[in-house]
Amino acid sequence: MPVYLVVDTSAATAGCVTELENALRSLQTALSTSNEIAEAVRLSVIAYSDGADVVLPQTKVSWTTRMPDLRASAGCRYRPVFRRLLELVPQETERLKQQVSRVVRPVVFFLSVGQAEDGAEWPAVHTALMAHEFRPHVVACAIGEDRERTAGRIASRPELAVTAVDGADLGRSVVQFSVFTQQTVLNLVRGMLAGRMDLTLACPEGLTPVPAER
User: Cβ distance 89 to 4 under 8 Å?
Assistant: First the structure.
């Protein structure tokens, strides 16, 4: 199962870079604990601010995998992220199909903290990604300003949008995103190994689903 973890490293995350890095290492631990789960997942990490960089190319995670260091920088644009996903997802899905007997639809976990500066530009690329034959599931978690609208626009389905609760501390929200991502990935993999693909979200304390009417 291809998993893409997209993390905001805009200036808005300057106070929680350590928590973001810990989130990556916690996911590494969760995946590495079971050989069966580690074999089933291929993880990529994309960090974005003004541009989008693949800081961990698609890999089978193990205890020896070197997780990337992150650095907050100026700018916050979504268009480069979706352009990169539109390029990577088809290429890597096709490659995986030649390596393993079964490849399920990729899943993207998108963490948004800062306000996108290209709000008029990124939706077109997002739409192209969602229309592609290998379109991924996109789970969106927004913990900055205008949270509900942001998560709702990014998620591939309304029920895949979650936000931080009102008044939540930013660093604490990143920790809860880490817990949320780990739980969702592990549940997905266990379901896949049992012959089903059941993408349902269970939010830990501090995160909440975006109301359906939004």
Answer: yes
